[in-house]
Amino acid sequence: MAARELSVWGWGYADTPEPPQVDSALQSYRFLLGKPNYTLFPPDVAAIARGLRKPRFNLADAPAEVRQICSDDPKTRMRLSYGRSTRDIFRAILGGFSNPPDYVALPRTESDIVALLAWADRTATHVIPVGGGTTVAAGTEPLKGATRVVAVDMTKHFNKVLEANTTDMTALVQGGVTGPGLNTQLRKWGLTLRHFPQAWELATVGGWLATRSGGHYATNLTHIDSFVVSLRIITPRGIIDTLPVPSSGAGPTPDRVFLGSEGILGIVTQCRLRVQHPPQHRVATTLVFPSFAKGSEATRAIVQASLYPAQCRLVDGAESRAYGIGGDVRLDQACLLLGFESAHVGDLETRCMAPAIALARKFGGLVVAPGGTDTESPAADESATFRSSFITVPYLRDALLLRGFWLETFETACSWSRWEELKTGVEAVARERKAVVTTRYTHVYTDGPAMYFTVAFRPSSPNAAISEWNRMKTAFTTCVLDHGGTLTHHHAVGKDLAVFYEREKGAVWTDTVRAIKRHFDPNGIMNPGTVVPVQQSGEGTKSKI
Q1: Residues 255 and 233 in one domain
Q2: Dist. CA 257–CA 300, nearest whole Å
Q3: Which residues are catalytically annotated?
């Protein structure tokens, strides 16, 4: 069977049909925002590929092992020109593939990567590690002003589970394996990882590590960090191999330096992850609350009671209606998707669900969809309708973008004591810019929620759309920081938010990150401009030859 072809310009696979909810979503946004100002059509990929900028340098000076793994295929270079944010998709629709990587490397072995980095270091060639290419923060976009760029695609050859240890419950996994590939291979040992970000079908384990992705667990094991035992990273300075032990108190840990580093220090080739047996016991329900505030109080009570639900997502009324959850929920209400799972412990209804529902009822929670289990799949503990929407939303986003509506998301985390003022501030920014915004909690902690906002607006014209969104995104980001939120809970910093990094982390830590980068990457070749901006000296922007 032939492998499915990834879309050059849009989300996911080229042969994926538009989701069935396009018409209903279009009707809703026409009601909320008015008639769109334009209609677009998918780009002519073949025509753009024929006129794509040629590589700006040849590989004559490269060693044989580098030449053998590099391709200048136009469509592949186009696909890796951008991530998959709405702005990325919009630029691609307009045919704006003006800054593609010069080559795409498909390393076969670690020796290939070592040779590639050594050559790139010598020739001041930028190296951008790419997993599934699903970044929504411009994390893999070539830096403007760069003159030599190679994107490194790890998915073709570094895509295996090398071993699994059912005594330690760990697995040694290569960085280029995707979510489905990981799950399929772990089943041979009767194991699973249970980490399902929205981009699960496309994104890679290495990408999850590089961006500190958030999975489907709403409490407890929320970030990929919690699953990491050890890492193996190839840097321009050498190879880092961290110790595979359950925990260590031996000073600062290197794992924490590389998690979330977004390819600015090196390339993750493999990692050891904590795995588990697939859940055999599940229970789920949906509750409706008279307001988002009441639902928030109930959610906080549940998470602070240490019940550790796998699913604990609070969704506002507008988004609940869009997803078809909660029945005839009103716009001023909210729904809580609540679920528990276990591989070994049964009777979750009595042990976990009943106490959680009792807490929810104190805040006006009404059960509207009791019970229910599901199969092993992304977001398996969620309702079938919500799960389907969760996976297909990016495809819906692309379809609506062609029809003149701009949908984008951003997320943050803040304390319980500040969530309401942050939400109010975001809604005020949206109103000022004639946009609509919906809210949900994706993950919850004892000290606060991770808030996920979906923004929709009607650009005035194709030429103005990007600048209108850029101004809006800056306003939203500033609002989040002003109200005590973090730049990102699980979307990463990328190049989009790098200019705000110092404001959140402070000058001392930002300078420390730069110093760490200089140590592992003395010549600034590894994905410059991501996480922290390139300094005024021009670091990382010019070729030495």
Answers
A1: yes
A2: 31
A3: 452
